[in-house]
Amino acid sequence: MNVVTRGIRSALRSPLRSGAIIAMLAISTGLILAMLVARSSVNAKIEEVKASVATQVTINPAGVQGGMGGGDPLTADQVAKIKNTAHVSSVAATLTDQLTGNDNTSLNPSLDPPKIHIMGPSGESTQQPEQKAPVITTGTTTPSSTVTEDKLTSGVMIDGTGTERVAIVGKKLAEKNNLSVGSTFTLYGETFTVKGIFSTDNRFQDSSLIVPLATLQEVSDQSGEVSTVTATIDNSDNVASTVTALKEALGDKADVTSQEEQAETTLAPLTSIADLALGGVIAATIAGAVIVLLAMVMVVRERRREIGVIKAIGGTNRSIVTQFITEGLTLTIIGGIVGLGIGIATSGPLTQSLVSNQSTNSSQTGNTQGLVRGTGGSPGGMMRMGGPGAVTNQISANLTSVTSSVTPQTFAISSAIVILIAIIGSAVPAWTIARIRPAEVLRTE
Amino acid sequence: MLTVNNLTKSFQSEGGTVHALSDVSFQVQTGEFASIIGKSGSGKSTLLSMLGALDIPTSGEILVDDQDIAKLSGSQQTTYRARKIGFVFQHYNLIPNLNAKENVMLALEYGGMPARSRKERAEELLDAVGIESDQQLRRPTRLSGGQQQRVSIARALANRPAFILADEPTGNLDSETGKKIFDLLHNLSRTQNTTIIAVTHDLDIAGKTDRTFTLRDGRMIARKK
User: Among all residues of chain A, which has the CA nearest to that of B105?
Assistant: First the structure.
């Protein structure tokens, strides 16, 4: 029997104690792997989102105040300039309109009417007469950029480049008006056919409808006008120069912003999850090392006499330390294997839980902001749904779809951490073993 | 041959310097069975630790075949313990999770015997001390005190040591079993020409050894042959 075999056998000498140590190490290792998976998955998502928006530039009319509207819409000439700017590979244009009872529509809004309070000079609040909530209508050349195809609960996506009288309708608006695929409704006196129903996590979006851009421009008598243009640049290296070129071409009539900047803000919750996961990895590593350290210190203290006897019969410090390190490694490796299994099983749900909790917090904040926009009304008569807000919504919706998987890299890092735990945990006991003097131990005979 | 010259061991304690051994000198011939007697605290175990290179004397020399073991380096002392010395303890001190045969094989491993020869040698030694083959596979907790001490003696003999140092080898056994263990040690010193130095309280046993040294307060006060 060699020293390694003796170490392995000694590690399992006390099944109850070994089981308890292995269980604690397994939990610690499982947490390490789950946190590493969460971190790498979230980081991958951040990179994916950044990569997807890295080449997009948003152009809005100058003077637009968040959701309050304002500013003159972009014209067909300005859209043409954008299209003709160097490195712009494609353009998606959007026009957002708010339908009220005066717009000859059969649709009833599904949102509650806004309550408007006006503060008097001495601080008193006066509630204004109730107004009917508007129905938000978005005309876009790319409906899938506003509502992704997987959000359709029934029907099909519409073609945004045509002039057909077709629409996809948000779930709440459809329920309010008893609409289903194939139903018709009236908009600006024209009859529209419902081609699809969509459902998102955003109640404002679910209370809106989407039609082809040219159709909305035609029926609402806003020919050539758009409220937002999203230009895709051919290469991320050309984004900065193209933004400059667009600003020069459009002058002070439009605001040009890179969506990467907006993505940074929207991705902040994911970044905090990644930081949290890193903290979890560090904490679990320290906990694991402390568990092994305390366990091995306890084992060495208990077996001082045995160590003394081994030294007395000719055992070298190196062989005894090797045996005890093997014991520590055996417990750590068994705990590590069980823990990696736990980590593989729990990393998916844990990542989803972290992401969905963070997204719930974010969407609650987002909904509050949306309510403020809705209640605030839009004096200018133009709200942005296809602009930066839509991009943010799209990214936010994307965030919940983080796919977690154990990659060879995360597995290798977890395994390396387990070995590191064993080494740290065994170092101090090894030092103690080397200092044990057999004469002192055996003097108690 | 073992020669001890002017051996002194002092410790520092709160009350000042304690002399565990003071100027102890004696000689034991190869193949002799010597005993050391004395009251508790007289320095018997300290002397045994010095002879076994488990502790370093404050002054004096311990010559084993003309080599002063007090001047050996740490690794040389380990080699000395593995190859020249066999220990027999009052409480046997067998490794609890190894069976009898594995306990003997462990000493053979430290003595540098090739792995393929250890099993046969361990069986031979255990047979010689009267441990039957089925008992050889038992762990210490499943052996009687006398059987454990026999295994301990087999372990001490494993590497054909020059000396066996026995600290109260019969102290934990009933008188009948103690007598058998003494006879076993005595027989070994005769048949294998192994020098045995045993610390004991038992004056009957001491009286049967070839030579007896008496310690009192760390000083050698009598030598009897």
Answer: A1
